[in-house]
Design goal:
The protein has 219 residues and is mainly β. The protein contains three helices and 14 strands.
Length: 219
């Protein structure tokens, strides 16, 4: 299948971190992949710079994500959602927004890899997975069309400067022409660190676009 016919795409993004005692915000440029898990074989066949479960410049590995000792990532996610009382309907599509370049997996402080699950049309559900702990959280429904919100206690140390009482406050817009993921670290009701990702859709995964993203030339 031609790349232009696939749902999977790239987002050209900037990551921001802001601490209350620091006025300067320095953005970091990254590329996010919005991958339809059913399209992984076609994506690997169409782009030499991208591979599934093998080394490459851009590599997607099931082992980087939710692992419940099932056959593959989709089976793991289906099992986990069933455990949460949110089983997937037959034939439901699964999209994963993620990042991996060589050995570097997307794991900015207090941010997360995001499972975006197309449960049915027009309703959608979403989930979150923190990369350092592989701890998933579920956002079972949206507060408003295309907008998801969840506040949850971490129960682990996000950094040496936070406590076990730290909460994550997630605000996510379902990706379309743009993507936005906003995460606050909250203690005693006050944000102690804010992190967010904002970006624009840049079309399907092709070698030309992947090379352009990595070298700094936007295609």
């Amino acid at each position: 299948m031609d790349a232009s016919q696939l749902k999977s795409c790239l987002y050209d993004c900037e990551v921001y971190h802001q601490h209350p005692n620091r006025s300067r915000i320095v953005p970091v440029s990254i590329v996010l992949f919005d991958l339809d898990l059913a399209e992984l074989p076609e994506l690997q066949a169409n782009a030499r710079l991208f591979s599934h479960n093998s080394f490459n410049v851009y590599a997607f590995r099931d082992a980087d994500h939710l692992d419940l000792s099932r056959q593959d990532l989709r089976s793991n996610l289906e099992a986990w959602l069933a455990e949460q009382g949110q089983p997937l309907s037959p034939g439901a599509g699964i999209r994963l927004v993620t990042y991996r370049v060589f050995w570097d997996t997307f794991s900015i402080p207090s941010a997360s890899t995001s499972f975006l699950v197309e449960r049915f049309t027009p309703g959608r559900g979403g989930g979150l997975q923190h990369p350092s702990s592989l701890k998933p959280w579920l956002i079972a429904c949206h507060e408003s069309p295309g907008f998801f919100h969840l506040r949850v206690q971490t129960h682990f140390y996000v950094s040496p400067f936070t406590s076990l009482e730290t909460e994550f406050d997630f605000r996510i817009r379902f990706p379309g022409d743009r993507i936005e993921i906003h995460i606050d670290d909250v203690e005693a009701g006050e944000p102690i660190c804010s992190s967010w990702i904002r970006g624009e859709r840049k079309g399907p995964l092709t070698d030309a676009r992947l090379f352009g993203m990595r070298s700094g030339f936007r295609c």
